[in-house]
Amino acid sequence: MPRKIRITSFGYLHNTAPPADVVVDLRPYRDPHISPELRDLTARDPQVRQAVMSTPGIRELVDATVADLRTRARRRQSEPLRVAIGCAGGRHRAPTVADAIADGLHTFAKVRVTHRDLRKPVVRR
């Protein structure tokens, strides 16, 4: 039976974290929302992905999370491992990192990614 991992990106400002075995909170990392030119864009836009992935510490976090999830999934082959990746609004950091983690797992497990809040309106702060 193939290993299964379900990743959900979300925004804490929209609702609580979805049920998960592992939660990654990206709020301490630089938020592209602070840049007016990125604020209304999403992780579907290359400028946002570049900004997130060039944030100090993000690539190391992705690599460490992939390694951790591989270890956890090896121990849990019967039911999917549920992972929640959160940031403030769920439009920039969380979906970008969720996709990067999924990319790191695609040869290891069957991965499904859901972006819960990607299409929700920008939270004006």
TrEMBL record:
Residues that span the membrane, as ranges: none
Name used for this protein in its record: P-loop ATPase protein family
A Pfam short name: PapZ_C
UniProt organism field: Frankia torreyi
Highest taxon of source: Bacteria
Domain RapZ C-terminal positions: 4-118
PANTHER family, per database record: RNASE ADAPTER PROTEIN RAPZ
InterPro entries to which the protein is assigned, alphabetical: RapZ-like, RapZ_C
GO MF term (any one): ATP binding
